[in-house]
User: What shape does this take?
Amino acid sequence: MNGTPARKSVVEAAPALLSLAAGCLTVLIFAVSCSGDALPGRLHPEENVLRIAVPSDPRSLDPAIAYDVVTWPLVRALFHGLIDYDDDLNLVPWHARSWTVSGDGRTITFKLRRDIRFSNGRPITSEDFAWSLERILDPATRSPGQGFYRNIAGARAFQDGSADRVAGLRTPDPETLVIELAHPDLPFLYCMAMPFAYAVPREEVERRGETFGRHPVGAGPFVLADWQRGTRMRLAKNPSYYRADEIRLEAIELMVGGDETLHMMMFERGELDIASVTSTGIPDADFIRVMKDPVLRARVAHQPLNAIQYLSMNTEMPPFDHVDVRRAVNHAIDRKRIVSLISDRGILARGVLPPGMPGFNEDLEGYDHDPEKARRLLAEAGYPEGFTTELMITAQSGIDTKIGQAVQQDLAAVGITVEIRPVTGSTRIEATGRRGAVPFSTFGWYQDYPDPSNFLDVLLNGNRITEVNSTNVAFYDNESVNALLNEASTSTDQAHRLALYQEAERLIVEDAPWVFLYYPQMYLLRQPWLKGLRLNPVWPIRYELMWIEP
Amino acid sequence: MLSRILRRLGWAAVILWGTTVITFLIVHAVPADPVRVYAGANADAETIERIRAEMGFDDPLIVQYGRYIGNLLRGDLGTSLVTGERVLDALLARFPVTLSLALTAVCLWMLMSVPLGVLTAKYRGRAIDRAVLIVSLVAISLPVFWLARMLQYYLAYRTGLFPVAGWTGWTHIILPAATLALVITGYYARLVHTNMVEVLNADYVRVARAKGIPEYVVLFKHGLRNAVIPVITVLGLDMAALMGGVVFTENVFALPGLGVLALQSVFNLDVPMIMGVVLFSAAMVVCANIVVDFVYMWIDPRVEGM
Assistant: This one.
């Protein structure tokens, strides 16, 4: 070894250098672990810009396509509809100045405002609303909302291709939209308040074709300013909005990507104004910590949702075809414990309809936790030794796993052996909708609109049973219940309808096709400088009301 | 030389075709319905059947596969069922992120592992060698998603030294790349070490030293150049494994790359996008291996004749 001393020393000093580096790293990690938990101050680079995050790109901002709790508030920010809800869930005029329903309940006439324009400058007429509805029904649009508007007279003929136009949509003048229904349907007005029915400009849709959902043009308080897929999206205030002076946010900046845990970290670092805009609100793992921390707790807003979490028992498959077995399962399961497992983020359910729903019946008794009675019922049904069954749950869902394990324990206590079968969400939806495939499964349902038909009719009417893709996953078919539901769906007397729904619900609870678990609540964590958050069960997030306090 | 290249390209085409068959079968064997996923849980049966017919999912599987291959040969990877985005556009938009993550990670771990490997070979059996060995073993055993979360928690969330997540500047690449590099460095350090030890005992190294050539020249020119050849081979093969690591890392740090795209399309059962991502990744691995082959020839001219 004959190198120059200087060069040689680099190689030979290496162990020392490495030890030094290791030492520095240790010190750094130690320093980091010791640094306190203090929340950093507000990181707010832009004034009056709301910063939120969503786990993945909205599939589309086209009102005809979007159909989830994260995208709907964005569609609402970009487009404009005929009618809307007030905070008590009454329908109120929006783009429509007024509306009338004919005596037979089959004709609805909307009178429209004339001072509203699309953000491309063109005034909106009744023809735009009629065309937007027709577009939903056009099979080529592939709208998941088409079912809500199939009751418009002539919709089926249009869908089958035997008519060029939907006969029941008429526009006698630019201010008037007349919708004729095939049969009377009170909740149809709620369908008109859904984002599917918002107005889209025909010329822009035709110009953009399938990419309209990425380049939306509407008449809402905001316009899409930028959308880098998988990275970020920005909605800017629409200066030509007819009530632009009431909109106080300059822009909404969405980060796309990351899970709720990550968003929680960013929120606590002051990088987001709302921790999560999904229905979960606060991640499960952080919930107890947040509620115990006085600072964070003060930033929590909460809202019961018009939703239910239940277990569906397939009433066509033994042993669940026996009503006493289903009642026994209801008595065997301790709902209180299940709700405590989800940190009390739910209201105990005694029936199908949640408390925020018109027709909610607070006198329903439901099923109390009574394992003794459950065993007796099982014996009477011919299962004194219990039985073995399989409970299908969604694998990615932490809540489903907790429910599954609690149910497994409770049912074991009365002799029923439950094997838990975790599958992906998409597999579960497919399998449970297929007749005779799944005996027992967890389920959640979130309202489309606040009417009992959206729960009772869709999920429990015998006429919803199909061989595949059934929405009645309990395959529950009780003639008296069906008759009540069918009468209610065409009645035009709201009080009478609600009475019919209550009677139907009473019979359903007696027949116990479900284990009625709980009604979920939404928890929203927001920064103290975010103002104007007004929650309601239909629209927990309304961006047009929010502002950032300087 | 030319026949060798043509043979490699031929095999690459066979591998990619096989990938389409296997992926197509797996995606369609999944007991779930893409139309149902598209339409949402609340859609009724009639709506679902109408959408299925519109999307062409009611055709026999072989017809659907034929249509897919036909389009593929024309360079059309299809359109996402979920976002309506062209699959090729989505892949090309995400690829730079994944590529910069992978390249930064490769640079980081080569920069760390080569000096470590050389040093531990030089000081074989000494304290530094043992320390590096132990640390390497620990690092190799760390799950990527765990390490990613830890780095994120301590170096971003708690101290704010780095951004927690997202993709708005070059600083966003450091922690994700470091995550991948830390896990893999140990392995490469051992690889370099083993080869160096062998090389340093070779006659030509002894001759070089006897001639009085400076030690660093012996180590890095005579030794490393020969010791690094097997490392390059492994690096090519590891591109596949790196793609796997990228899925976790990108998801933890919310980087808009192929890994996130892959996971989301699987959750959404977005059939054309899943096919696209798998095919694209397979093509990347095949390309990486071909590139490694040529680098190998360049480093070791003897290989060309083989």
